[in-house]
Write a structure and sequence with these properties.
Layout: E1 2-3, H1 7-16, E2 29-32, E3 34-37, E4 51-53, E5 56-59, E6 68-72, E7 78-84, E8 92-97, E9 101-106, E10 118-123, E11 132-135, E12 138-144, E13 161-167, E14 170-175, E15 183-189, E16 193-197, E17 201-203, E18 208-214, E19 220-227, E20 230-237, E21 248-255, E22 262-269, E23 272-277, E24 286-291, H2 294-297
Parallel strand pairs: 1-16, 2-21, 7-11, 12-16
Antiparallel strand pairs: 3-24, 4-5, 5-6, 6-7, 8-9, 9-10, 10-12, 13-14, 14-15, 15-17, 18-19, 19-20, 20-21, 22-23, 23-24
């Protein structure tokens, strides 16, 4: 395998993750949820990833679901069903894109015992306007270089991930760290291969990260997650190169959706964010809108 970064960095991160984070704003603010799609088609009762492409929203079900992507409109109706050939949905958790490709992350690992983590890569030019279709994929496989044990750990593993973005010809992953509620940043090439990865940075999100996206102008990274039934978004801006956590940071508490299992996130534009949640006892599968402009005009 190709070792992306040295394991020495990981030891540094482990011992430093409890220290104050860089430029972190100590107190968060709140933002009210607005309904965008009140109910998505029942085929997608677990919307674990969210992306906008070709004037449609795209998502999928997570662990145990079909190996299919679904494109749906603002009414929540599914227009496209795309099967990924020779792919299996072990635990799909994130979707992102660059100019030429779509990437689907099959790396959900709540138990910390998976040894088959991968990202499926799809060429956009292979996606047609047919309602139902099948596309070929290439696989980007990876392992956490410092993971030595693969025994099942019920919601205590640091080697779980549900968030990914494509940025400057690389893929960036953000861990769902059950152990201490931080997130670790990893990076991967976008080329087919098999890689060992170690963290390049860490940030104390004080919760579980379940999704990520980059704004269209590439100036803001957003991470969505939850803790104690309260959903949040972390925004990072003014970051140098790809060192997202070295920029300005702000946490936003999402009001009006307490108890929702927030999973997917994508920017509708540079000033607004969409967040999807799975079907639970308290919420239908749906998509909420959060208007970032209201953070500046006082209406939050």
């Amino acid at each position: 395998m190709i070792n992306i970064h040295s394991s020495v960095l990981l030891m540094f991160l482990i011992f430093s993750c409890s220290s104050p984070t860089k430029k972190e704003i100590a107190t968060g603010i709140s933002l009210q949820a607005e309904q965008y799609i009140p109910e998505v088609d029942g085929k997608m009762n677990e919307i674990s990833g969210l992306m906008i492409y070709d004037d449609h929203l795209w998502g999928f079900n997570d662990s145990g679901g079909k190996n299919e992507l679904y494109g749906f409109n603002k009414s929540g109706k599914i227009k496209y069903e795309i099967e990924l050939d020779d792919a299996k949905n072990r635990d799909w958790e994130s979707i992102t894109q660059n100019d030429k490709h779509v990437f689907v992350g099959d790396f959900g690992n709540n138990g910390g015992n998976r040894d088959n983590l991968r990202i499926y890569k799809i060429r956009k030019k292979d996606i047609s306007n047919k309602d139902e279709q099948k596309v070929d994929v290439k696989e980007i496989e990876f392992e956490y270089a410092d993971q030595e044990r693969f025994t099942y750990l019920d919601q205590t593993t640091p080697f779980d991930c549900e968030a990914m973005v494509a940025f400057k010809n690389k893929l960036y992953l953000f861990s769902k760290n059950w152990r201490d509620r931080t997130t670790w940043q990893y990076e991967l090439p976008t080329k087919k291969g098999k890689y060992d990865i170690t963290p390049t940075d860490t940030f104390n999100v004080k919760g579980l990260v379940t999704g990520a996206d980059i704004s269209p102008n590439k100036k803001i990274l957003a991470l969505v997650g939850y803790e104690n039934f309260q959903s949040f978004i972390w925004l990072f801006s003014d970051f140098p190169e790809d060192r997202f956590f070295e920029g300005q940071s702000q946490t936003i508490y999402l009001e009006g959706i307490d108890g929702a299992q927030t999973e997917g996130i994508c920017f509708l534009n540079n000033d607004s964010i969409l967040v999807s949640c799975e079907k639970t006892r308290t919420h239908d599968q749906q998509v909420f809108l959060f208007d970032l402009k209201k953070l500046n005009d006082g209406t939050h």
